[in-house]
Specification:
elongated, single chain, Immunoglobulin-like, alpha+beta, 7-stranded antiparallel beta sheet, about 230 residues, 3 helices
Length: about 230
């Protein structure tokens, strides 16, 4: 049996174990011992079937052992990294547990339940005119009003353009900056919402807010005590 072919086969087998390990830690834990036993069997067969007149050089055996040892170490490293990742996620959630019950500010839709919503617009500093465009959960425009060209918080009372009250639900707020009567920039306004839960989704820490809205923690720009 050719030593180069054996080495190639062993590398492929061991690399497969490492790939499996990077996918799930539970699978990798079983893959390493299984592939190590396969490696020993293949090595034994190789030694039994070598040509006695032209035996395999000991250096080839050393290469095969080093190859498998390296990949086996990669498997173990993957297991350790997966474990550390899980611990860091839980640690981060524990630290953010104190956010529950407070109000976080971010560019996100707001849950309207009848009480006015405080909005933090950030228009262009040199805008000639600024408008606030309010849309419902379906993206339908509810109202468009002119607001001051500043970052001072404003109150939205929850009414349409004609003054009619809007129903309970989620609403988004776009701040449109205009120059010479033309829109030059549109930004989603920031607002505060009470944090009701902290959870992990897809490796990210997510805040659950009033009404069920969610926002990633790295999108939060301010935090304050609930009013």
């Amino acid at each position: 049996m050719d030593s180069t072919a054996i080495t190639s086969a062993l590398t492929t087998s061991a690399t497969g174990a490492a790939t499996t390990a990077s996918t799930t830690s539970s699978t990798s834990g079983k893959a390493a011992p299984g592939d190590f036993n396969t490696f020993l069997r293949m090595l034994t067969v190789q030694m039994q079937n070598q040509d006695p007149l032209d035996p395999i050089d000991s250096a080839d055996y050393a290469v095969q052992l080093a190859t498998f040892s390296g990949v086996e170490q990669q498997v173990k490293t993957n297991e350790i990294l997966n474990s550390l990742s899980g611990q860091l996620t839980m640690s981060g959630m524990a630290q953010l547990a104190g956010w529950v019950g407070q109000e976080a500010r971010a560019a996100m839709p707001a849950w309207f339940d009848g009480a006015p919503i405080t909005i933090s617009p950030h228009p262009l500093a040199d805008a000639d005119e600024v408008k606030l465009v309010v849309k419902d959960a379906d993206g339908k425009e509810v109202s468009t009003t002119k607001i001051p060209a500043s970052s001072e918080p404003i109150e939205w009372a929850g009414v349409t353009a004609d003054g009619s009250p809007v129903p309970q639900g989620f609403y988004s707020f776009d701040v449109v900056s205009l120059k010479d009567g033309k829109p030059v920039q549109t930004d989603q306004a920031e607002l505060y919402a009470a944090v009701t839960e902290v959870r992990s989704e897809g490796g990210k820490t997510i805040l659950v807010l009033d009404g069920g809205a969610t926002v990633e923690t790295d999108k939060v720009t301010a935090l304050r005590a609930a009013s």
